[in-house]
Amino acid sequence: DIKGFVFDLDGVITDTSILHGTAWHQLADSLGVAWSEELGNGLKGISRMDSLEMILKAGGKENDYTETEKKKLAAQKNTNYVAEVDKMTPANILPGMKDFLDSLRANGYQLSLASASKNAPRVLGKLQLADYFPKIVDPASLKKGKPDPEIYTKGAELLNLPPEQCIGVEDAAAGVAAINAAGEVSLGIGDATELGAANMVFADTILVTLANIEKQLG
Ligand code: G6P
Ligand code: MG
């Protein structure tokens, strides 16, 4: 039986995946690295420094910067991203997600957050959802990011639940791979082809309801 839900944040609860993408796109432009939708999608769920590495690699520039310079570039992206986050309000919660969280609470499910973002507490605050997630995996504590299972394993541990009693909720292929490797049930939100490895996929957040999930679990 499912007793808990381990949530990704960006692109699942709110539309920040777009803000991350825009901020990285800007940085790629300034570095002369060609942007593509594929590059942008591949960055979803990937930590800040790993994302920068992927962008540099895409442009054949992985050896062009020192560690100090790379940290500066990542900080520059983060400054731009945070400026956008600070404009957010509860209106930025994706359609249906507040109702879904409320129904999970009302039905006694436990919730934790497994976001790679160091800005997750800030984003939850802006959305006025901090109360829903007293249990957040600290991304700074991770040895490896998604698609490694570590973040989802820790998400279930925070709930004191075995992984098979948890559903992991993701919008990114790297995240779905992490959930599967952690032995949890994977729920993907987005493109069914991109998220083909998930146990269930919903095209849109509005479709993510307990009733629809129960149908899929059979
Ligand atoms: C999430 C997003 C990624 C982002 C990562 C780190 O996983 O999907 O796009 O790069 O968090 O976010 P941060 O806010 O710490 O730079
Ligand atoms: Mg995400």
From TrEMBL:
Instruction: Name a Pfam family for this protein.
Output: Hydrolase
MF terms (GO), sorted A to Z = beta-phosphoglucomutase activity
| Transcription keyword on record | no
Domain of life, per the record? Bacteria
Q: What is its EC number?
A: 5.4.2.6
Keywords (A to Z) from UniProt: Isomerase
Per its UniProt record, what NCBIfam families does this chain match? bPGM (TIGR01990), HAD-SF-IA-v3 (TIGR01509), PGMB-YQAB-SF (TIGR02009)
Of which family is this protein a member?
A: Belongs to the HAD-like hydrolase superfamily. CbbY/CbbZ/Gph/YieH family.
Under which name does UniProt file this protein?
A: Beta-phosphoglucomutase
**Gene of origin?**
pgmB
